[in-house]
Amino acid sequence: MGKENGTFTYQEIMSQGVTWERIFQFIDTMSSSLKNWIKEEHLQTIFTGCGSAYYLSISASIIWQTLTGRISRPVHASEIWFHPEVYVTEDNPMLIATSRSGETTETIRAMQSYINKTGKEPLVITCSPELEIGSLTSRIMDASVASEQGVAQTRSITSMYILAQIAACIAAEKPELIEKIRQIPGFFQPLIDEYHPLAKEIASRTELDHIVFLGTGINYGLACEAHLKMKEISLTHAEAFPFMEFRHGPKSIITKKSLVVGLVADQTRDAELKVLEEMKELGATVLEVADGMDDLKPDYRIHLNTNLDDIARGPLYMPVLQLLAYHRAIMKGLDPDQPAHVDTVVKLDS
Ligand code: F1P
Asked: Ligand 1 within 6 A of 53 CB?
């Protein structure tokens, strides 16, 4: 008998709590080499990757700059490969590359360009340290416990996100924040138990055929990742925008068939809730994902209820949204394990 649709993806989404626990086992071994690396002279840090790994880079660079006070930015791996002169500048940047497969051509090429120009080893966060990426550097944060068989990244990207959070805490010498991040795995199962039925309920509303994910700052990277999951797994027209940008034109596409998902941050909540209110008035169905309670009357609400701050709680926005994409795919008769036209890794000939 053949495999049922989505077996791997479902199992990988649901095992995130235990996988995150296992990720923390490696912190002590990584910590001292990371500290030495961070001491090297540099003025800026560049985070890079492709697809999910690039979206992780958006959030990670904001966390890094907030915690360390040093300039940090996300750059697409292909940009570094094609334009090293623009990004690998004379001010000795540090490079942090993320890749589940460890073989994505653009990420490997970006690392090679960086190594050729600076003679320095990048730091990598990967599920595949034994592959090409690991042959280019000895500085590795190993997420192989989060490896996957599904094509779309679920537990791998949230686990690598946690490693990026931890790297920033080590760089900023904030061990107390690592202790907060250590609480994340404990919130996973209660969140799934409470909101898995809601994910199924929203997924059954197949008349909603346009899904917008909104987030500010750190949460913008997470909104981008959520939009990619929805697109890859459920072949739904999905988009991601910073909350405030959505008013500047993109909102014109909102109809009664739109679902707007707001990944609300504590720091910017008031302004974000006004955007969600406005989208509701325009006819969209609104799903609010927030840590605290507020006066908004969305159609649906996921209350994360962690009391963790915006920097610490990031990965917890993802699991219920991954389940929403998974169930939508199942409703549409698709196989979430095998998105159309996408392979696990993009390898180019030249
Ligand atoms: C990056 C990536 C994935 C995407 C797809 C193709 O892979 O773009 O984010 O979902 O599977 O590859 P990697 O460099 O993290 O292995």
From this structure: yes
Neighbouring C-beta atoms of residue 237, cutoff 10 Å: 14
Query: How many angstroms separate the alpha carbon of residue 12 from the centre of ligand 1?
Result: 16
Nearest-atom number in ligand 1 for the CA of 107 is 14
Pocket of ligand 1 contains residue 344 by CB under 6 Å: yes
Overall CATH class of domain 185-331: alpha beta
Q: What is the best residue among 101, 229, 343 to mutate for testing ligand 1's pocket, by most ligand atoms within 8 Å of CB?
A: 101
Q: 192: buried, middle or exposed (CB in 10 Å: 19+, 13-18, 0-12)?
A: middle
Ligand 1 neighbourhood includes 152 CB (under 6 angstroms) = yes
Q: How sure is the predictor about 12, in pLDDT bands with cuts at 50, 70 and 90?
A: very high
Average pLDDT over residues 78-103: 95
Region 288-300: mean pLDDT is 96
pLDDT band per the 50, 70, 90 thresholds, residue 1: low
Maximum Cα–Cα distance for the chain, whole Å? 59
Instruction: Label residue 43 by pLDDT band (50, 70, 90).
Output: confident
User: What sections of 15-141 are H helices per DSSP?
Assistant: 16-23, 27-39, 52-68, 77-82, 84-87, 105-118, 132-135
More confident site: 339 or 278: 278
Share of the chain above pLDDT 90, in %: 89
- Reply yes or no on whether the pLDDT at 343 is more than 90: no
Q: What is the CA radius of gyration of the chain?
A: 20
Given a contact cutoff of 8 angstroms between Cβ atoms, the answer to whether 96 and 60 are in contact is: yes
Q: Return residue ranges of the chain for CATH 3.40.50.10490.
A: 7-181, 185-331
Stronger pLDDT, 313 or 25, i.e. the higher one: 313
Cβ–ligand 1 distance for 104 under 6 Å, the answer: yes
For ligand 1, atom 3, name the residue with the nearest CA: 51
pLDDT value, residue 209: 95
Using the atom order of ligand 1, give the atom closest to the CA of residue 157.
Answer: 15
pTM of the model: 0.97
Superfamily of domain 7-181 in the CATH hierarchy: Glucose-6-phosphate isomerase like protein; domain 1 (3.40.50.10490)
